[in-house]
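Retro notes (design track)

What went well: tokenization of the new backbones is finally stable.
What didn't: we kept losing track of which sequence belonged to which structure.
Fix going forward: every design gets posted as structure first, then sequence, in one message. First example under the new rule, 622 residues:
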């Protein structure tokens, strides 16, 4: 269906009364909103009817709709699943979006193997393994697994046992007493399984048996005056106590549940989730949410629940939520199908349950307020710094800065770099590298002239081509011109840039970043005047970052070319001069001009050179 000929009123009449998903497109054909409906006809028509109940965000979204499409489903549940998938794939701007794409670690026990292993896993697969988690801290999971290996000496290798028993020597873990070496037959299958069962009890939260065992071994080692062994058991005991301390009982129900609450401001929301597994609070996590067309807590929490549980493999038995969800019954049905058991969604209204939800809400509000301060500081460092730089030179609305630098080593090859900062942050996709083609030797001014000419000529050419095609849109980094060009240097470099701008008929402001004798930024050169700047300001720090980044990018490119053998010196063409003699010449004379001016006697004195090679160099240049 061609969106140019799309007649919204006519298409609304054709909408079916069946469940499905609707997709809103703007005039550029980008998807701006995805929704689901029990009746597509009723739901989609509501957007285009005049109503006082519409929020400003929904009105803004509707004004951008150029066309819509829809997909019919057999049930509301199918529509929910399809909606989740489309939102995740297209990330429409008016949908409430979960910013975080986090995965949570599990502890995996391969109980189906003859000699099981205990492993770190980022996903819970439908295999025969036993999984514990999800946990909120990958570090804590790794520490727990390491502790279990130390206590129970469980293998970590992927050898096929018992088939491979005795085929290879025992690994390092056996020698440091973190593996009982079933690969050598040093432990029977039955004894090994006893260790596995104790480890499973430990992972299930039964810490008392292992603590008692470690205390007993520590005391015995101490009585036998084996103090080194006693210290080892003491450290293991302390590690177990630390893990036991983190696993605080929240209630005696021993259920798996997530407790979900949120706090919001005008643009963003933070959702806090407490993870309770087998009655233990194993951790918490917060999630940033961009508010789209949604307005109230119910809509935001509904969007969060759908997106979060579409992406996580573990579904708890209960969800305790701050407020009731829209489409609660179909979401409950969807979660039940994913879990394979009944999932209950509830809003606690009294007692300890309500207090836990309130605690999650307070945590969300705290994160939101802290992040606001962080955002303010970040804006001062970025957009504020850009405005400060613009203010020093009398320019407003500086959003895009391009900076250029030249790198060469002893004049044997030159390369140029272009780096881009937008709104105070590096835009690395728009960085560009230039291998100097028109200039021979170390001539930074001529090299800079070439880089700037190539960069802006290319941009002008692309713009003309787009206009001929009737496209009024900027593509890529070359067709987007900067609000300000910054040169790494003073008057000389600025004049080179201004000359290029005149030749190409452009009027982009050019500013120089002037350094002192110690190569530290001291001011800006603009309109033939050096402007001093406050060394403690955010603008000064931004200029320093831009200078360093331009230099780093040029040097990095030069190194990559040299490492690939792509930088070719004129010395490569001299007969009888190999890599070692070229290096010796470069070390001694520092530049190509000095080598050209050297006499045969001077060349013969270079280490590794003889009369024949010295004569070859001299005759090559003369």
């Amino acid at each position: 269906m061609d969106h140019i000929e799309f007649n919204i009123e006519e298409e609304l009449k054709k909408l079916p009364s069946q469940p499905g998903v609707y997709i809103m497109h703007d005039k550029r054909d980008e998807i701006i909103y995805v929704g689901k409906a029990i009746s597509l006809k009723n739901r989609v028509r509501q957007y285009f009817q005049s109503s006082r109940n519409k929020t400003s965000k929904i009105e803004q979204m509707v004004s951008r709709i150029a066309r819509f499409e829809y997909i019919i489903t057999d049930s509301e549940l199918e529509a929910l699943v399809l909606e989740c998938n489309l939102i995740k794939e297209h990330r429409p701007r008016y949908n409430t979006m979960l910013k975080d794409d986090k995965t949570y670690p599990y502890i995996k026990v391969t109980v189906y193997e003859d000699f099981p292993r205990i492993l770190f896993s980022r996903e819970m697969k439908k295999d025969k393994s036993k999984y514990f988690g999800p946990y909120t801290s990958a570090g804590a999971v790794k520490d727990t697994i390491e502790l279990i290996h130390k206590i129970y000496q469980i293998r970590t290798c992927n050898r096929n046992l018992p088939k491979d028993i005795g085929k290879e020597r025992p690994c390092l873990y056996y020698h440091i007493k973190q593996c009982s070496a079933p690969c050598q037959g040093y432990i029977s299958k039955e004894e090994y399984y006893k260790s596995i069962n104790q480890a499973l009890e430990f992972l299930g939260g039964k810490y008392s048996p292992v603590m008692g065992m470690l205390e007993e071994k520590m005391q015995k080692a101490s009585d036998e005056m084996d103090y080194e062994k006693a210290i080892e058991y003491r450290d293991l005991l302390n590690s177990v106590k630390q893990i036991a301390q983190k696993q605080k009982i929240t209630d005696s129900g021993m259920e798996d549940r997530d407790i979900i609450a949120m706090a919001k401001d005008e643009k963003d929301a933070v959702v806090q989730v407490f993870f309770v597994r087998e009655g233990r609070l194993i951790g918490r996590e917060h999630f940033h949410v961009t508010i789209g067309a949604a307005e109230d807590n119910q809509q935001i929490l509904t969007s969060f629940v759908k997106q979060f549980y579409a992406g996580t493999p573990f579904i708890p038995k209960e969800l305790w939520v701050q407020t009731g969800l829209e489409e609660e019954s179909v979401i409950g049905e969807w979660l039940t199908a994913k879990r394979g058991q009944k999932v209950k969604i509830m809003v606690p209204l009294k007692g300890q349950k309500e207090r836990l939800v309130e605690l999650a809400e307070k945590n969300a509000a705290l994160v939101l307020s802290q992040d606001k301060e962080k955002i303010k500081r970040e804006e001062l460092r970025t957009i504020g710094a850009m405005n400060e730089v613009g203010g020093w030179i009398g320019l407003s609305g500086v959003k895009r800065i391009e900076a250029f630098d030249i790198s060469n080593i002893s004049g044997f090859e030159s390369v140029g770099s272009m780096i881009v900062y937008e709104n105070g942050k590096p835009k690395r996709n728009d960085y560009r590298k230039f291998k100097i083609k028109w200039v021979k030797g170390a001539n930074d001014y001529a090299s800079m002239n070439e880089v700037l000419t190539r960069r802006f000529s290319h941009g002008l050419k692309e713009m003309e081509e787009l206009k001929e095609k009737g496209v009024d849109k900027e593509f890529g980094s070359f067709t987007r011109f900067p609000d300000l060009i910054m040169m790494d240097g003073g008057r000389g470099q600025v004049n080179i840039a201004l000359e290029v701008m005149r030749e190409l008929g452009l009027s982009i402001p050019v500013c120089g970043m002037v350094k002192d004798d110690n190569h530290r930024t001291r001011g800006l050169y603009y309109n033939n005047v050096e402007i001093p700047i406050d060394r403690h300001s955010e603008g000064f720090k931004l200029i320093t970052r831009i200078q360093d980044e331009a230099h780093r990018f040029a040097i990095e490119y030069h190194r990559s070319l040299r490492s690939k053998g792509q930088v070719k010196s004129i010395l490569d063409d001299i007969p009888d001069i190999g890599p070692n003699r070229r290096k010796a010449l470069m070390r001694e004379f520092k530049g190509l001009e000095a080598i050209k001016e050297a006499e045969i006697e001077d060349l013969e004195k270079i280490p590794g050179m003889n009369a024949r090679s010295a004569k070859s160099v001299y005759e090559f240049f003369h």
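Added context from the reviewer: Confidence is low (pLDDT under 50) at residues 247-253.
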